[in-house]
Design brief:
Nucleotidyltransferase, domain 5; five-stranded mixed β-sheet; 17% strand
């Protein structure tokens, strides 16, 4: 039996018209909720520059896609007047991205939802094979198990590696602390592992500090900054990243901000790059342990050993105190040079550098101020990174980006 479709009511037609007009706003609206910049529909309306009705239609569509939750009846704050605006939150049971990280002391997989929320993590593995294919297959298998256990829909996968990643090929050019061959095609290998596991969505790979900066800019210590400099030392080496005008700056081929190879001690340790006294070998956990007269044991990672030594022996142990001061001075020298060139509005520090900042913030800020141009750069805020597993969260951001760009197309 056939017949004419029921006529659409005027209200339904107006709602559909508003949504059609607002389809181009779905991505920007989702990013505003994702980054916490639009906690209510009133703020979303103002940020998008649309009518309240259009913002309502956009929010309703994002809710129908399972991406956000709209609370139409929020409680009013004490002393507030008028009806409170609808609250907007990311959907707790919504889709996730598979995030993977490989570093010198192991690898880990996690599921990360919108808002940078880590939904589930697999136990970390402490052995990294010299064959990247074996490692990436194992980390994807761990992520697949998480997806199976949680039953979540996956939008894609992202990988963080401790190496410069050349674009557009996705090659890990210098995985020095992994024993991987230089130029390993990590993105291609990772994508093949993701496809073989039956995981839907695109796969990406990038440098771990770049991804940490991206995550901190959207969800952590970098929120609200325009030009953000991130410097971090993880398990080995030193990395840097820059967010310019709200976007991650990777240069013409993905290799920008190799800050580890700034010379901070001309008579210092030989560096893997062929130079001497680079930040990479003068201000990482191994350099700290050597400066403090400690041997790097195999029981736990060098980052853990260095952090524990500072937290338990500073300032009572003269050797530890001297090592802290030496690394702060070297780090400050490197930061001052970067500040003079880049003029960021905020600096964030991760890994061991965050511990050094927490231990003696005034010394580090003084070194940067003393060596900055005209003393003006001494006023740049230097803050610790705040996100746990920020490189994992950043890896997930890569997978979430197509959804943020066009939710309808990405989830079709």
């Amino acid at each position: 039996m056939t017949g004419k479709a029921a006529p659409r009511t005027t209200g339904e037609g107006n709602t559909r018209t508003r949504l059609d007009r607002g389809r181009g706003a779905l991505g920007p609206a989702l990013e505003l909720v994702h980054t916490g910049r639009a906690p209510t529909r009133a703020v979303l309306t103002a940020e998008l520059g649309v009518t309240r009705a259009t913002a309502g239609a956009v929010a309703a569509e994002l809710e129908a896609l399972g991406l956000i939750r709209v609370d139409a009846h929020p409680g009013a704050a004490a002393g507030a007047q008028g009806r409170p605006s609808h609250r907007l939150e990311v959907a707790e049971g919504g889709p996730v991205a598979l995030a993977a990280q490989v570093h010198a002391d192991g690898f880990r997989a996690a599921l990360v939802g919108l808002g940078g929320r880590i939904v589930a993590t697999a136990p970390g593995c402490e052995a990294v094979d010299a064959d990247p294919s074996k490692v990436l297959r194992s980390v994807v298998e761990a992520g697949t198990e998480l997806l199976r256990n949680t039953g979540r829909r996956c939008v894609g996968a992202g990988l963080a590696v401790p190496s410069a990643v050349a674009e557009p090929e996705g090659l890990a050019l210098n995985p020095l602390h992994l024993a991987w061959p230089p130029g390993a095609p990590v993105r291609e290998i990772f994508a093949e592992c993701v496809r073989a596991a039956g995981i839907a969505g695109p796969a990406f790979a990038a440098n771990d500090v770049n991804l940490a900066a991206l995550a901190e800019h959207r969800h952590g210590a970098g929120r609200g900054s325009r030009d953000l400099l991130c410097v971090a030392t993880g398990h080995r080496g030193v990395g840097g990243a820059l967010v310019l005008d709200g976007r991650l700056h990777t240069g013409s081929s993905g290799l920008a901000l190799e800050v580890g190879h700034l010379t901070v001690n001309p008579e210092g340790r030989p560096c893997h790059c062929g130079s001497r006294g680079c930040l990479d070998v003068e201000a990482d956990p191994l350099a700290f342990l050597e400066e403090a007269g400690r041997d790097a044991g195999p029981e736990v990672s060098q980052l853990e050993q260095a952090n524990d030594l500072i937290r338990t022996r500073y300032p009572d142990d003269p050797a530890v105190r001297s090592a802290v001061e030496a690394l702060i001075d070297r780090l400050g020298l490197g930061l001052s040079g970067l500040v003079n060139i880049l003029n960021p509005d905020r600096i964030i520090l991760g890994g061991l550098h965050r511990t050094l900042l927490d231990t003696d913030p005034e010394r580090l800020r003084a070194v940067v101020a003393d060596r900055s141009l005209w003393g003006r750069s001494g006023g740049v805020p230097i803050l610790p990174c705040t996100l746990d597993h920020n490189s994992l969260v950043g890896a997930a951001e890569l997978a979430w980006q197509p959804v943020l760009d066009d939710p309808l197309a990405a989830l079709a």
